[in-house]
Each structure stands twice: as C-alpha cells, then as structure tokens.
Design brief:
Blueprint lengths: L1 H17 L15 E3 L6 H18 L2 E7 L7 H11 L10 E7 L4 E7 L1 H5 L2 H16 L3 H20 L16 H25 L59 E2 L5 E8 L1
Parallel strand pairs: 1-2, 2-3
Antiparallel strand pairs: 3-4, 4-6, 5-6
Helix pairs in contact: 2-6, 5-6
C-alpha cells in the first residue's frame, strides 16, 4: 500500500515536470487582465495599466489583456498567446471577444492574438499599423508607453468596428501631425502671406508697365548683335498609366483583400493576430 502511494506521487511529479504551467483561474472568476511575470513594470505602472485595461474591457465588452513572460516554455509566441487566452477563460460574450498582447523577453518576441469580435476589429492592416506605433517603445525599453498605446488604440479599433467600418488597408487611423510638418506648414503660410502683401504693393506701382522685351531700355544704335544662339531650356514629358493586365477570367487584377487571416489554436478555437520581434 505504501509503495502504491509512492508511485502515485512519482507519476504526479513527472506530470508537473513535463506539462507547461498556466495560472488557470476558477470558473466564474475574472482572470486578471495584466500578468507581468517578466517584471517590466513598476507597482504604480501596473496599477495604472490594469485600471485602463479593466475600464476599456468593461465598456467595450471585449477583454484587453497584457501578458509578459521571461520564457515561453519552448512554444512559439503564437501558440503560447492562443493557449494562454483559451485556457485562462479570457473573452467576453458568446464570441469570447478579446485581444491579448504577449511579450516574451527570452527571444524578444511580441504577439497579439485576437478572438471573436477582436478578429473583426483588428484586421491584418490594422495590426501592422498598431505595431508600428509601439515597436519603437518596446525596443527602447519603454514598456509602459507601449502597453498604453496598445490599450488606447484597441479601444479606438473596437469603437470603429462597431460603426461597421473597421480600420483596414484602405482606411487606417490618421497619423498624428508631426512637429516638423507643423513647422513646414507655418513657414508655408508665412510665405503665402508675404507673397500676397508683395503683390498688393506691386499693384500700386502705377508708373510701371509690363514689357515683353528690353528694347525700351536700350539706346537706339548703341548695341549690335554679332552672334545669335538658340539654347534649349525645357522639355515636357507626358506619362500615361500602363493598362492593368487582365487575368484569365477577363477581370482586372486587384490587390489582396483586407480583413483578418485566422488560424485554429490547439483547443480548436479560431484566432486572428500576428507578431514580431523588438
């Protein structure tokens, strides 16, 4: 009897050693939307970010989750993000709507997995645009800034998708107007004002008349031309768009359609998303 108990303990220990460990939460409880196992945030930053994630999740009725890990236990970033989302019960409503942002410090991977309405809200083009906004902050170690960008932009994406037109390849958020562009615009406006003022002053010169030649400024008989040369100064080029090639069906070829590519996780759940390095 004693040996049988020892064998059971040994089998249990072996199972714990080979199975990946996820912090699975009790049924009916709300899993935390921020899990910072890589210790990338201070205590104050964790509180601020979690409040933001909770507020947006409850208002949008779609879970926004941030997970940081030191290692992914041999899994790819996509596999880990999908399984973490599914096995911890994330997702609100019948569609398990939500978006999870995973950071792994081992290989410096990031991955965003989407589920339910999150797949509709974060299209492939929208995800590429979103990652362009936070990748630099991740590279520079500004993790709080990157996570806040993720939260705020996902809030915007969800709102836009509910209007019936998600951000996609032909319709992306307007980029912020950079300082350099503002400065150039200010100089441009100043130049136009100066040009307008100069034109007003020129129009007041009543004694000056437009001349097509300089003959009136030359004393007759004082200048004789000994040589004349034609100098080519300008040329005009007209460009026409090359006709698009037809395919075998006679239809014009177009760019690949927008939307979200999806895949199936190990639990059989449909996910969208994508990732990269930082």
């Amino acid at each position: 009897m004693h040996n049988r108990k020892k064998r059971r303990y040994l089998v249990l220990l072996l199972l714990l050693a080979v199975l990946p460990i996820y912090p699975v939460y009790a049924a009916g409880s709300t899993p935390p939307r921020l899990i910072d196992e890589a210790d990338l945030l201070s205590g104050g930053e964790e509180t601020q970010l979690l409040d933001q994630l909770d507020e947006i999740s409850q208002r949008q009725q779609a879970d926004l989750v941030v997970v940081t890990k030191k290692s992914l236990d041999g899994k790819s970033a996509r596999e880990y993000a999908d399984d973490f989302y599914d096995e911890n019960g994330y997702g609100l409503g019948d569609g398990k709507d939500g978006i999870l942002f995973l950071i792994s410090m081992e290989e410096r991977d990031w991955y965003i997995t989407t589920s339910g309405f999150g797949i509709t809200a974060v299209t492939d083009a929208g995800l590429e645009y979103l990652s362009d906004q936070f990748t630099e902050d991740l590279t520079e170690g500004e993790y709080m800034a990157a996570f806040m960008i993720f939260a705020r932009m996902c809030d915007d994406y969800l709102t836009q998708a509910k209007k019936g037109r998600p951000y996609d390849a032909d319709y992306l958020p307007k980029k912020p107007f950079p300082f350099a562009s503002r400065l150039a615009a200010a100089f441009g406006i100043g130049f136009l004002i100066a040009l307008f003022a100069a034109e007003i002053m020129r129009s007041r010169l009543k004694t000056v008349r437009h001349q097509t030649t300089a003959d009136s400024y030359v004393k007759k008989g004082s200048m004789k031309l000994t040589k004349e040369t034609d100098l080519f100064l300008y040329r005009q080029i007209q460009r026409r768009e090359r006709p698009k090639q037809n395919n075998s069906s006679g239809q014009l070829n177009h760019a690949a359609p927008g939307g979200s590519h999806t895949h199936t996780s190990s639990s059989g759940t449909t996910h969208g998303g994508g990732g990269g390095k930082f």
